[in-house]
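Dear U.,

For the methods section draft, I wanted the exact inputs and outputs in one place so we can describe them consistently. I've listed the two proteins in the order they'll appear in the manuscript figures. Please don't edit the token lines directly; just add comments below if something needs changing.

First protein:
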Amino acid sequence: MHIAILTLTFALPGCSSLKEKRQRMGGLHARFGNTPSVAVCESGARDRHDASEWTFVIVGLYKRDIESQCSQIEEKIERTVDARIMDVEREFV
């Protein structure tokens, strides 16, 4: 069993409220949390309207499958989220 922790830090330029932040970051939990091998949560900058940090925990039998899933998550977020990715951290445990 392999476990990856993928943490993405976002900047939300021009975001002026927590409500707007929820709209711009909205759906991350619904989009990725429904996958049985993925757990997702907003893990940092929860009270800031101009930044956000999300952590994904991906579990699987093969490291290459987990790496592929991490890449797919990053690519989908780049295409669908109205925010700038400032940092990406991948950790395998």
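Second protein (the one for the lower panel):
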Amino acid sequence: MGISSMIGQNALISIVSHIFFIGISFYALQAIMFEKVFKKNHVFQIQLLFILLSIAIGSTVSNFFLTFTGWSSQLPYLFE
């Protein structure tokens, strides 16, 4: 397996991971009643904040997951 295909696989895994965790964050944030915290008749702003929070939380969790997975795969080198 060439290095270019490994880089491509890594990129695909990262994209899928980010999308997955952003989707989970979006789903989880739906449990919060944002309408009671913000001004009335500002639906677009609430939805935009909802999306931005989902991206921020999902990307952070995905980065943690990918970094942790990378570190875990490097542990065997400790015992060589």
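Candidate sentences for the figure legend, describing the second protein: The longest helix spans residues 43-74. The CA atoms of residues 17 and 69 lie 12 Å apart.

Thanks,
Y.
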